[in-house]
Amino acid sequence: MQTEQLYQLYLKHPFVQTDTRKLKPGELFFALKGGNFNGNLFAQQALEKGAAAIVVDEETGLDTPLIFRVNNVLETLQQLAKHHRLQLKIPVLAVTGSNGKTTTKELIHAVLSCRYKTSTTEGNLNNHIGIPLTLLKIPTDAEIAVIEMGANHQNEIAAYCTYTLPTHGLINNVGKAHLEGFGGLEGVKKGKGELYDFIRQSNGTIFLNTDFDYLLEMSKGIHNVFSYGTNDADVTGRITANDPFLKVEITSMNLPATINTHLVGHYNLPNVLAAVAVGIYFKVPFRNIQEAIEKYNPSNSRSQMIEKDGHHIILDAYNANPSSMKAAIENFAKIQGNNKVLILGAMAELGDESMNEHQELVNLIHNYKWKEVILVGGDFLKLKTPYKVLENTSIARDWFQKFLPLSSYVLVKGSRSMKMETILQ
To answer: Disulfide: which of 12, 97, 182, 319 matches 187 by Cβ 3.0-4.6 Å?
Structure first.
């Protein structure tokens, strides 16, 4: 089936689903398949649940005009998303980076929504499936879109750009994330830099953090730049308080004002400044920018402050890599509080560097005084350390419930695969 024909069907039924458990009558079902699932096997179920059309790439045995056979369902989904994107004559901002990209995306969305009908990535649907689904959720009357791009190997972001076609780009930072897939830190720079490559070739615009020399180097040759940072940028700001919530003073553009956030951690300063810069660039009144950021309250296990049973808990457990772990530990060490407890889950996707990076974290922990340090799972189990090392999050949850000192300040962080948030359940 030609993309244009499928697009006309999509216009009549602009809701796409890839999971029959969530499928509603009148939606289009794309039968994706992977290593552990095959959506083609659920075509009958999709039909029974009232799908408007079912796109498959295997024989289903069903005799109905609602079934459309294509060569590859995923590629068809991506082609459909690109076709829809081409109809949208609006700014599309792509956001990527090693740490903080989801928080940045959420802050930018909050700011832009003050003035524009803004569409954005839901949660972290930022991969080869989530991005086309996000594009297909952009309504035809949208005025701007913010698309998050995640990646764990080279050429991934370049591929996303071929159907997202961003007009604007923002790289938060480059850190020690997904080292195994990228092949080291230089590989991460190259992979994330694929967004800059596309913007450079298409003569788009980037939002540049001037505090990072490597971003300045990576962005050479891009003519349209709007910058932010602590110095020498279009938008500048500094931290005025961080105990525990971050307060940021904007020090440029005749905007001497403090933004009182609900974010924990000095590492969120660039995220806040990025949102301010994007808002100013797109002519959102500053009072609206300030209000939007101050109203944003994280509820997604990212820099989230929780008060529970007399404890103050920083839940930053959506993901972790050596760079974000280091920043979180150093920030937590500076916060005023008694009975400070670290509960850290192991990091994933570090390849040959994994043991060394876990040891480096243990060395960093040694530099500060803690009431308790609990290390959970993975390569922490292979290290010799003076701290408590527990096999999994289930055992860590038992420790948390039985032995956590009264009135503790707690940092809970670990890779997504560890599901460290379950400790609090």
So the answer is: 182
